[in-house]
Amino acid sequence: MARRPARPDDRAGLGHVIDLIRETVPPLHPAGVPFVAAPAAAALLGRRHPWIARPAWALAGASALFFRHPSRVPPTDDGVVVAPADGTIALVDEAVPLPELGLGDEPMQRIATFLSVFDVHVQRVPITGRVESVTHTPGAFLSADLPAASSENERTAMTLATGADGAGPRIGVVQIAGLLARRIVTDPVVGDRLSLGDTYGLIRFGSRVDLYLPAGSDVRVTLGQRAVGAETVLARLP
């Protein structure tokens, strides 16, 4: 039997449904593919044995949830610094930046975002700039919501020079491992030009991201506030 030609409104309807699905179900970060594929394969192979299949499907679903990578729309204002991650604002204070950031020994504004295991765990570029340094430092695995985690835990610190020619204020962004985190992924290398809101890394599982901002920055968040990576404005540079 001949197939009925699709009408234009049919295609539009199907395309609309697909768009709705894409907006509702966020894509998977590439780093999460093995964590979803392995238990899914085990579930398929053990489908005749519920005691294997059900836990395997549950693990695949939990991994897909953890490694979700939703699209975000960053603000267009100049000079704003956005949240580098989803989570809760755990610290708003002043602190001497970590030595590996190369930002001197004078206190800077610090904003820490704590990510629970239920938050999106990709990290976003907080402000457009050029990468000056990327330094990984081994360390402990204290609970990421503790102040000591900033200097004691395993971490990767990145320094960004802002401005069109890299001559603007410099900021530091630090990915910090937590109790369950055992892997920090940082994609940029020195010299890369990063754009506001782009995904640049990932921490698994449970973590924290600290921002070090120049003195005089206008902080726009408070302790305990929820932040959305790439969208919530944390501060405006001086």
Topology:
Blueprint: H1 8-24, H2 33-45, H3 50-66, E1 80-82, E2 87-95, E3 108-115, E4 122-124, E5 129-137, H4 149-152, E6 155-162, E7 170-177, E8 183-186, E9 193-194, E10 199-204, E11 207-213, E12 218-219, E13 226-227, E14 233-236
Antiparallel strand pairs: 1-14, 2-3, 2-13, 3-11, 4-10, 5-6, 5-9, 6-7, 7-11, 8-10, 12-14
Helix pairs in contact: 2-3
Characteristic key phrases:
single chain; 238 residues; alpha+beta; Glucose Permease (Domain IIA); 2 domains; eight-stranded antiparallel β-sheet; three-stranded antiparallel β-sheet; 4 helices; disordered N terminus
Notes on the structure:
- The chain has four helices and 14 strands.
- It has two domains: 8-66; 80-236, Glucose Permease (Domain IIA).
- The longest helix has 17 residues, at 8-24.
- The strands form three sheets. An eight-stranded antiparallel beta sheet has the order 9-5-6-7-11-3-2-13. A three-stranded antiparallel beta sheet has the order 1-14-12, with no helix packed on it. A three-stranded antiparallel beta sheet has the order 4-10-8, with no helix packed on it.
- The chain has 238 residues and is α+β, with helices and mostly antiparallel strands.
- Helix 2 (33-45) packs antiparallel against helix 3.
- The chain has helices spanning 8-24, 33-45, 50-66, 149-152; strands at 80-82, 87-95, 108-115, 122-124, 129-137, 155-162, 170-177, 183-186, 193-194, 199-204, 207-213, 218-219, 226-227, 233-236.
CATH topology of the largest domain: Glucose Permease (Domain IIA)
What's the total helix number? 4
What is the total tally of β strands? Answer: 14
- Helix/strand structural class: alpha+beta
Global geometry: globular
From the 3D coordinates, which CATH architecture of the largest domain would you assign? Distorted Sandwich
Estimate the mean pLDDT confidence. 83
Succession of helices and strands: HHHEEEEEHEEEEEEEEE
